[in-house]
Write a structure and sequence with these properties.
Shape: globular
Number of strands: 0
Radius of gyration: 19 Å
Number of helices: 7
Order of helices and strands: HHHHHHH
Strand content: under 5%
Length: 158
């Protein structure tokens, strides 16, 4: 009679990873720090971290802003300060208050649609601000932010 052995269940394989922390003993604050270092290095022209176009700048800014809020503490203070600046750029324009979601979309659309040429700092900062506001707004703009936060929390065991 032929018998087959079933593979080890996923929980048995995952049990070898300390506390489900795929990155070892890295916390959300650690991930926020690593993201901030890579973000600044890429914007400054690192030979290892490349931010060569506005799409890359937007992705780095969005992920960095999201991780800062997820980390809490001083990182969240940095991010919320950037979000307040972003909301101030879109709220007090004389056209009425677009709301948090409208501000987030306006910042992200400006970062994406404007011809920034070689100035990658602006789309990076606008998308960082947009990520913070998108997370606060909820709804469709907040879905991507929540997915990134969930992945980061799973990677760090949080």
């Amino acid at each position: 009679m032929l018998t087959t052995t079933s593979p080890a269940p996923p929980t048995a394989l995952a049990a070898e990873i300390n506390g489900m922390q795929f990155l070892g003993a890295v916390t959300l604050s650690g991930l926020a720090l690593l993201s901030a270092i890579a973000f600044v290095a890429g914007l400054r022209g690192s030979d290892k971290v490349k931010i060569n176009n506005k799409d890359q700048a937007m992705v780095w800014g969005f992920i960095t802003g999201t991780l800062w809020v997820a980390a809490g503490g001083t990182w969240a203070d940095f991010a919320n300060g950037a979000g307040d600046i972003g909301q101030g750029l879109t709220r007090d324009t004389g056209f009425g208050d677009p709301g948090l979601g409208g501000s987030a979309i306006a910042l992200l659309l400006t970062a994406w649609a404007w011809p920034w040429k070689k100035r990658m700092l602006w789309p990076a900062l606008l998308s960082l601000m947009g990520a913070v506001l998108a997370g606060q707004a909820g709804g469709l703009p907040g879905i991507v932010v929540n997915v990134i936060r969930t992945i980061a929390a799973k990677l760090t065991g949080g």
